[in-house]
Amino acid sequence: MKNRILIAVLAATFALNSVYANDAILDALVKKGVLNQQEANQIREQADRDLAQTTEMYNKVKVSSWVNSLQFFGDGRLRYEWRAGQGNFAGTGKQAVDNQDLNRFRYRLRFGVKGEFTDNFSYGLRLETGQKGNSSNSTMGPGLVGGPWNKATTDLIAVGQIWAQYKATDWLTLVGGKMENPFVNTLMVWDGDLNPEGFAEKFTFKTGNVDWFLNLGQFMYTANTANFFTGGAAAANDVWMFGVQAGGKWQINKSLSLQIAPTLYAYANAYDGGGGNYTPTLTGGNITGINDLMVFDVPVEFAFPIGKIPAKIFGDFATNLSGDQRARDAGFSQYTDQKYAYQVGLEIGAKKKKGDWQLKGYWQHQELFALDQNISDSDIFDSHLNMEGFVASGQYMPTDFLTLMVTYAHAAAIKNDLPTLYSAGDLKGNVRNYDLLQVDMVWKF
Questions:
Q1: What is the tens place of the pLDDT at every residue in 292-327?
Q2: Which residue ranges make up each domain of the chain?
Q3: I want to staple 219 with a disulfide (CB 3.0 to 4.6 A). Which of 80, 171, 198, 292 is the partner?
Q4: What CA–CA distance (Å, rounded) separates 321 from 161?
Q5: Could you give the 3-state DSSP secondary structure of residue 422?
Q6: What global pTM score does this model have?
């Protein structure tokens, strides 16, 4: 009788306390001879049932049985930004030097959920501010009709990412949706805010000290509402972007590593939906054409310590294998050699926890016919091609969740006889000189 009472009391008590502490106490009671093993197991089973009932009673969040995990994540950012361009041509034949300055206070919010399903499936969803695919920024005090601090288009919350992933084997992962960029890349080629839409396949395997990877991507670049027209109109096919990346990371020793990721990007139906032929003009101001683009890109990274401080030398080299034809289509057949881009820089420090700091600087050179101007970074050089210059930034973490950052960039035209027309940037026309200053405060949650 005493044992039964003891079992009931212990079961009720254990249901309200730590599972690990309960197990330790039960094991101690068994060793002392107060309980036998069968009685200890009964207490555990009763405690598990009581705890499950209590959890079900008070649990306000219900998820499907096939959801194994659910994690919320996100970040917020406040930014002061100044960007200025000198040498904008306001119209055809006008050679006067114009100046354009943008002084803005901006903010960004990104919030999402990710986790795992059963059967090796996982998922992700991220919502974010911003109106454009290459920017999640909203500008404070928008000049919109309807009064101050209008919650109009500048404050819209949009889907930044939505993807599903299946880990088919230990070495193959399949992804579909609007996803984080699956390729090893730099800002010279890819804007960090872009989330391509389509499909990706990621292969990984290891031999010795080398982690090998093969990344494939098939992205819907432009979806036309109708692929066939009658009545004499031309057909318009969907435009696709394809990427193939094969590389590896060699862990030379505990503190030294080298990563190389050769990549090829190509396009299908580029004349149908990508803005037509690449024909930069002084009046149009905006170029979107993606014809004659087959970009071979090789990002490289060598990590090493400076004392106890982590550091790395990084770089990127790219060339458009169809750059000579792209130049001829643009009407600049004398500049068929302007098809190269490169970046080289140094990074020192880390940014993982309170007290960490990081300094970074690099030189970047992007010739007019070398890259896809629609996906190149919209902050550094404002998405203008035919530009070269330097970028310097510093970061400091006063807490585990807060990062302070300052970035400055300056660039100038490579060839003054060629335009620097933008695609996705903010400064219009042919910029001869460009300056950027950004002061950021970012917090994670």
A1: 899 999 999 999 999 999 999 999 999 999 999 999
A2: 2-58, 75-107+163-444
A3: 198
A4: 31
A5: strand
A6: 0.83
